[in-house]
Automatic annotation (TrEMBL):
Species whose genome carries this gene: Blautia obeum
InterPro entries membership: Helicase/UvrB_N, Helicase_ATP-bd, Helicase_Restrict-Modif_Enz, P-loop_NTPase
GO cellular component: cytosol
Lineage: Bacteria, Bacillati, Bacillota, Clostridia, Lachnospirales
A single GO molecular function term of this UniProt record: hydrolase activity
Residue ranges of domain Helicase ATP-binding in the record: 2-169
Protein's name in the database: Predicted HKD family nuclease
Coiled coil: none
Pfam families reported for this sequence: ResIII
Amino acid sequence: MNINLPKYNQTVYAELLQAMVWNNKCALCAATGTGKSYIAAKFVQEAVIKQDTLILVPFRASAKIWNTLLPQATTMTYQGLLYNRPELAKYKLIICDEMHHLGADEWGKVFNELMENYHGKLLGLTATPIRFLDGNRNIAKEFFDGNDIQGVQLSEAIQKKILPTFEYVTALYDLPESKGNNELTENLGLAGIRRKYSEEFKDDIKKYYCQKNGIDLILQKYPGYTRAGITNIANRMGLTFRDSQPWTAEEDELLKQNASLSISELLKIFPDRTKAGITGRKHNLGITNRSMHTWTEEEISILKANADLTSEEIRSRFFPDLTISNINSARRKYDCRKDRNWKPEKIERFCALYSKGGWNAVKKDPEFSDMSKKAINGAAHRYNVHSAASHPTTWTEEEKDICREWLAIPEKERPPRRELAKRIPAHSENGIKDMCRRLKTD
């Protein structure tokens, strides 16, 4: 199938080609109905990777469309990731259709686990990269490193008559009682289970899931599933692992004896319990958090003498019976943290970097690369230094020359503006875009 793109998508396609050369991840954001799927399909065709492409879709109906566009590619639903994890190494490209669905807890978690060992290209497609009802999460930034290509947006599509004008119809509607909704949802969920899984499989779920190591027993018999998938199916069948295993008197006594341990250490003692289960049981038994450790002068001296070590290293070498939280609290209280013992030269360098480009510029410096954003901003507060990148800055001629060099490159061969931003960390991408526009008109 030869794909010819309309004129309004040819520029978008050229930008996508450039972006995929420079980056392994990219998100294409354009209004529904403007041809995102055709742009992606043309990219696959011209890259000659039809048989090396995996397409993730939210619904089976979407898979039929992709099977028509790219019959040699492999299609799979996001839901399918919960039950069958494909071998991603054989794919050179993964297309995430309607990528905003990755914001769902289970799907996003499994997807991130799969991506840890994937080194090919990743292309996302969506009309709505922002999940407004989920804390305004930006899926393009969260899963695609912020590398997004903006296609034709809704207002432009209507203005150019690519899409018809909408007609809004309003009407009053009484929703059924919540009880009725819950019953309908429950019945729909159970109906889906009846359709999808065999009676033998459901019987095994009922038989083993609530037992100790029950999930492991199920996985031995059905290796094509994952722990998350089994849990999801069992929960839809009304089975809950926690309720099925009440705490025994022996477990309660063991929990009381080891109440001073951290949750991670308690999980080793109670391998069949969850973090939430242990925390809830401690609350039910009236077990409060461990009492604060009283630090001796000798211990404080050890903290100060080893300020350059991480809290994990200090714990493993000197205080194995304490938690990381204990050590972090003491380092803050007694002023024993790593950055508090910086030499004047290091402080001067930090302040210069932060004042010029903010925490991002500091993070790029090898000397400070192991610091988190929170630690960098905290150090900036202590040293009373402010970032010039947070407000309009003065452009130097050297910075303008970098923009002129970028503008001199033919538009179709020009690297993305984000690559330009890496060379000019003192300015935001919007600031660089504005400067390029002014230089272009001069």
